[in-house]
Amino acid sequence: MNPLRSCDTTSKCFSTASVTISGEKKAQSTWLSGAYTWLSRLHNRELEDKAKEVPELKTERHKKKLNIDELEGIARLNLAEAAML
Questions:
Q1: What residues does the Oberon coiled-coil region domain cover (predicted)?
Q2: Does residue 46 register a pLDDT over 50?
């Protein structure tokens, strides 16, 4: 069972753990170590997800730049055509 599911916030869990387990240093250490491991894995998973998004975002950005260049070219042609008339 995940120890953080029953807590509202991570900081509340850490403060509750350190107050309620006063004489049981080993239990406190084990719980905090488990919580840290769980949070580290969650953080690493989020970083991996964000890293997967980067190439997609770069491709999308490149397509938008190409589209802008094309539209600017059309606008320049229209201005040149209007200047000729």
A1: 42-84
A2: yes
